[in-house]
Each structure stands twice: as structure tokens, then as C-alpha cells.
Amino acid sequence: MRYILTGTPGAGKTTILRRLSALGYATVEEAATAVIADEHARGDTEPWTRPSFIDKIVALQRRRQMQSVAAAPLVQFFDRSPICTHVLSTFVGHPIPATLSTEIERITRDEIYDRHVFFIRNLGFCEPTEARRITFEDSLDFERLHEQTYRAFGYHLIDIPAAPLPDRVTAIRTALSQLTTP
Which of 15, 174, 26 lies closest to 7 in space, CA to CA? Predict the structure, then answer.
């Protein structure tokens, strides 16, 4: 059972993911942040401006997802998915590359991720980082695009509203128990 955490940048997905990991769940970190860090280390300060950025994210997402199969724990949480990469590509104005379309076809056909997605709502602000250079106003547009795109691809969103971290983790665990109880 592979579940996606999604939402706008700065909504707390990574913090939630790390708490879930500390509770013993298998987790997979976001790929885009890793790609940005790698590109920054190579001297590229704005890798997202190039269409090849999307291909690099897709390749890392696929690699990480395939590696997670080897561990095969009962429940896995992923910080983002190729659907998020589709949103990113659309948001920054890049065409959807064939690698991304093919990956979305694969994850859909092979039912890689559960169709229930944990939609982590914004916290009312967005702190800029080296990898996150988006205004709060733009992050709200990005959040809406995520919601629309996931629904368009047939996913069901489980809303996780802004709240203290323990409450958000409890909401996810409660929803998870309802999803996994026969």
C-alpha cells in the first residue's frame, strides 16, 4: 500500500513524512528537492527553468519507487508523485515530456499508488528556501492546480487541514486505519 502526500510547497509534507518515518512507516522523500540540491551543487542556480529538470525528477521518482518495492513494507508514504511532477511542469510552463507521460501511464496501469491521496493543506504562509522560491500567493495557485490535476487523474483526496503536526499525523493515521480495515 503506497500512499502519496501532496500539496503546495511549504505545507509541511516533509515534516509529516519524517514524523511518519519516526513512527515506523516506510517513507520516500521528495525527488524535486534532491534534484535541485544536486543541480545547485553543480552550479546551476535555477534548474527548474529547463525542461530537462522534469525528466530528472521523473527518473529519480521512478528509481526511488522501484527501490521501495524491494523493501516491501505493508504501508509506504511518498512525498509527492509523478502526478505532482505533471503539476510542476504545467505550472512552470514546460511541455509534458514523454518520460512523464510514460511514467504516469505506468503508475496508473500497474496501480503503483493507492487512489486515496493525502492532500496536505497550506499553513497560511510559505517560507522560501534554496529549493523553494515561490510566493505564498503563487503557492495557493499551485495548491489549486494540484487538487484539480489529482482529481482529473482519478485520485480521491483526503484533506489534511492546517493544524499542529501531531494532529495532522493523527488525521493521516486515522484515515489510513479506515482505508486498510476490511
Answer: 15
- 136 vs 43, residue with greater confidence: 43
* pTM to 2 decimal places: 0.90
C-alpha 170: how far from its chain's center? 19
pLDDT tens readout for residues 80-139: 999 999 999 999 899 999 999 999 999 999 999 999 999 999 988 877 666 556 777 888
Q: Give the torsion sign (CA, 84, 52, 135, 28).
A: positive
What grid cell was written down for 71? 523493501
pLDDT above 70 covers what percent of the chain? 93
Q: From CA 119, how far away is CA 83, in angstroms rounded?
A: 13
Can you spell out the DSSP letters for 104-171?
A: HHHHHHTT-S-SEEEEE---S-----SS----HHHHHHHHHHHHHHHHHTT-EEEEE-S--HHHHHHH
- What structural domains and CATH numbers belong to the chain? 2-180 (3.40.50.300)
